[in-house]
């Protein structure tokens, strides 16, 4: 299909796994294959004051970058940014988000422990602000809905529409926000959204402590969606690690030497604690689900 400019890989078709990522030259062990910024990301509701509202970098309220950020972090429901750059970049969705009362929508997400509606919310705000196309995720694979559309997806769409149609946001153009659009987005998020977690330095020396924090949800910063990393296939014998050394920007690194023409396979795991962030991809019905839901993936 295509080569990444300057990258040692290309995206193509595989014989039995749909799209895949192939090496166009030999790749050395430990080589940085490429980086990837998310198409869309959203912090968990519990991390609004622990993660940058834009890049998901783990932060402490005591080290906010400006006086205005300190004031914002002290205000319930106000987001925190790690830098002026992130605050400026966030206007692609935040200019719309701040017009809306999200209390009912967030209460639903909190009560039911769901995170994909939060990503859909942010994507919708980006579309409204002309920051992206309504079809920006269409290139990604999606779950099979042959057994019907989950009723809760329709409920979530109605809640999202209701929030955006509130008095304060009454002038927003919501013509794209149909059941079909929301279902299409959720169907892609369920197999392409990464859960981003922070592993504190102390926990990084103790796998059991880190795993416990993950299971309890204490280390979750948020979720993110990418295009090129989602083209990789998952596998029990991975040759690529995907790492988040600082924020939601991902590094894909060869975990062993890869010969030219080999399909690349990526893996998410606790293989390295040097970065402060590890990530989990959410799979439904995947028969490769590992112990603690922490590994799977591949370049061919």
From TrEMBL:
<dbReference type="Pfam" id="PF00856">
    <property type="entry name" value="SET"/>
</dbReference>
<dbReference type="InterPro" id="IPR001214">
    <property type="entry name" value="SET_dom"/>
</dbReference>
<dbReference type="InterPro" id="IPR046341">
    <property type="entry name" value="SET_dom_sf"/>
</dbReference>
<dbReference type="GO" id="GO:0005634">
    <property type="term" value="C:nucleus"/>
</dbReference>
<feature type="domain" description="SET">
    <location>
        <begin position="18"/>
        <end position="261"/>
    </location>
</feature>
<dbReference type="InterPro" id="IPR050869">
    <property type="entry name" value="H3K4_H4K5_MeTrfase"/>
</dbReference>
<protein>
    <recommendedName>
        <fullName>SET domain-containing protein</fullName>
    </recommendedName>
</protein>
